[in-house]
Amino acid sequence: MEWLLWSMRKIASQDLTYVPRRVHAVLHRWWINHCFPTAGMANHARISLPSDAHQSDCRGYYLARTSPRWHWEKGSITAIVRSIPKARQVGTLRVAQDILARRFSFRGREPIELPSGEWWPDATSLGWKWDLNRHHWFATLGFAYWYSLEDKRFLRCFLEESGDWMDQHIGKLGQLALDTPFEIASRINAWIWAHYLFLPASHWPRSHYEQFIRGLGLLAEYLSHAIELHCSGNHILLEAKALALVSEAFPEFRGAARWRHQAWTILNRELRGQVCGDGVHVERSTMYHKIIAGELSDLLLFLSRNGDKRASSLQLVVEKMTTFLLWIDQGSGQLPQFGDSHIEDTYQRFQSLAACPTLAAEFGCRLETETTDHTHWLLAGSPASSQVEQPFTQTACGYAFMEGGYFVARSGWSQDCDVLVWDCGPTGYERNRKHAHLDTLSFTLSVSGIPILIDPGVHESGVGLEPLRRTQAHNTICIDAKDQGILAQRGEIWSSPEAQLLLWATSPSCTVMVGRHNGYERLRDPVSVTRTIIAMHGLYWLVLDSLEGLGQHSIEQRLHLAPDSDVVIDASNARAQVTTRGTTLNLAYLVTTGTSQLEHSAAISLQLESSYAELYCGHPESSTVIVAKPPPQLPLTISTLIYKPDRNLAIVPQHFDEIGNCLVITGDDFRHQVHVDFRTGTAALPLIPGWKEATPVAIFRHFRETGRDDVLLPSSLSIPSDSVQPPAVPYRRHSHSEIVCMEVPASCIPD
């Protein structure tokens, strides 16, 4: 019965073609797995060399071939090796030495030494087995071969390991339960790179070379039949990319023309459907976004080096995806782990910035300090490999990825700047939510280049009701210990929350973002949750969580700290201090209910809760959650002021008869009055006689040193036609934002 209910909800969540596509996929996969390869399929996996080539010397043909060109040529290898930092080479050689001893380390686990011929060890996880059989470590052996000045041990290891794998498995494609089309696509990518790394090696035996090429053809032919057409998402996109690359790099395969047509048909369709107009991948997993952008860069640079006109359209996609990665970068390339994400993955081979020299110049950024070997070799001979010396002068600012649903506030662009990333968008991909989390309105915060408020990642297991996908595992509001939606078996999410952006505005002074979701309106006593985040660049962050509804509820605002954080709670004053890797943040809380103020020390309870994060796959780490619990009666607003300790800040509530509650934030040299009211049915704020703001947000600022007073209005103004702007009240709109900064007489500030 449970399976039937699950199936009914799954079908209801898809379009009308889902059932026939699914049935066809099951039947077709069954047929392929039982008959692969037929004589025709085996023929497609064979090489047909040009008539003027030496038919018995396949390797000699590829050594002499000038078109299509790979990322590097034999004559450029010495220069490539010289360009790679010694520390990177030493690290790669160390890993390669372990591989010689069949000692492997995947998914954060301690190294495991395997006996010869063992490919599916029982004492390891499914993901560990996948990583071993993806064979990306073949490329590690290839890199080590050249870094060590052609140490033949690395070549022999590659020959022995690849030969053994082919002897055991190449004739059983489709019969291995754990060997999915996604894994085969990953293996194709790995084998292509291994081929070109070892191609110039003079001691690659002809018999093994021809077996390897034959095996690559069989992998590609099988993938062309088993590609996951029934399931939209990163799998089919990455599978199509692998099939496209093998067909373009090896047009001599008899099946290459068919593979090429199939791959590009799928790839073009999926890129249109899976990459939002602002560059965010629809699954909204930062890890898969980075993987896809990197893999597309591999294909893009190959096309560019061969003058393929399809490179121009692919360039636009990669640049948009890379722009998103640059904006959410928390320093040195580390990203917040939204959705199913880990910091590292064997599929993360490339930095997409390598394929975007224009972006590198625009943002004034270089590749990450720890650039992968794959990226170094990918850049061989590319203009993007040159160092970018142009300084990036852009100041504090924000950026809205409206379609993707992510909103960013940055204090600058150095590696030690502050970065806040807020999620106010769809819950993953509506056609496939297996990598989505119930994290609507959650945010992450990195301060001085150190992630402090984090998304804790995802379980390695990838099955069942994973705790790290739940609402409680994210920096958002949790009501009655329930999730924003329904986590179901097999990674599905039913009744996902719908987010609504109410306001976005940014300027060099501040960034304001407001949104709400309906995830808790399905409760017996419905609750609407609205979150406002004000980033006053260089001063503080203010988070306002407003809850409207009926009845009493158990309410928690949860903030997850990085695993290596120390936290001290001052419960009597509703304050907390967090220190992570030498960087400290202060947090001050208060609660307002309706139109009355409560003493914050009595109104909110602060507790520390033990939890864990899995930022590195298979390596869970202990972490701490700050849980703020207000009174159960609605409506109420939780206000959280976050600031660095060198700022002596205080926050107090204040009430005005005309405009209701506001928050007064004071520092040594300023005083801010923050007016925010997005409650249903409230009118816009009557700020200045004859002027009216279109949305109920205003920030009045007083600068003690200069005596200057102004107001920041994160919206447009409605000015009566007969209103005359006083000369003493200059009006300025930032050209790149919706923030209005207007100087006002002190008499205009509510008091």
- What is the structural class? alpha+beta
List the total number of helices: 18
Termini gap: 64 Å
Radius of gyration, in Å, reads 29 Å
**Averaged pLDDT:** 86
Tell me the helix content: 25-40%
Shape: elongated
Number of domains: 3
Largest sheet: 9 strands, antiparallel
Q: What is the name of the CATH topology of the largest domain?
A: Beta-galactosidase, Chain A, domain 5
**CATH architecture level-2 label of the largest domain:** Distorted Sandwich
Strand content: 15-25%
Q: Can you tell me the CATH class of the largest domain?
A: Mainly Beta
Number of strands: 31
Query: Unreliable segments (pLDDT under 50, ≥5 consecutive)?
Result: 383-391, 595-602, 717-737
Task: Please render the helix and strand layout as text.
Blueprint: H1 2-12, H2 18-35, H3 39-44, H4 58-64, H5 77-83, H6 86-100, E1 103-104, E2 112-113, H7 126-134, H8 137-147, H9 152-169, H10 181-198, H11 206-226, H12 234-249, H13 256-274, H14 286-305, H15 311-328, H16 357-363, H17 373-378, E3 397-401, E4 406-410, E5 419-423, E6 443-447, E7 450-453, E8 477-479, E9 486-487, E10 493-494, E11 499-506, E12 510-517, E13 527-536, E14 540-549, E15 555-560, E16 565-570, E17 575-580, E18 583-593, E19 596-597, H18 600-603, E20 605-616, E21 619-629, E22 636-643, E23 650-656, E24 660-666, E25 670-676, E26 692-693, E27 697-703, E28 709-713, E29 717-718, E30 731-733, E31 740-743
Antiparallel strand pairs: 1-2, 3-4, 4-5, 5-6, 6-7, 8-15, 9-10, 11-12, 12-13, 13-14, 14-22, 15-21, 16-17, 17-18, 18-19, 18-22, 20-21, 23-24, 24-25, 25-27, 26-29, 27-28, 28-31, 30-31
Helix pairs in contact: 6-8, 8-9, 8-10, 9-11, 10-11, 10-12, 12-13, 12-14, 14-15
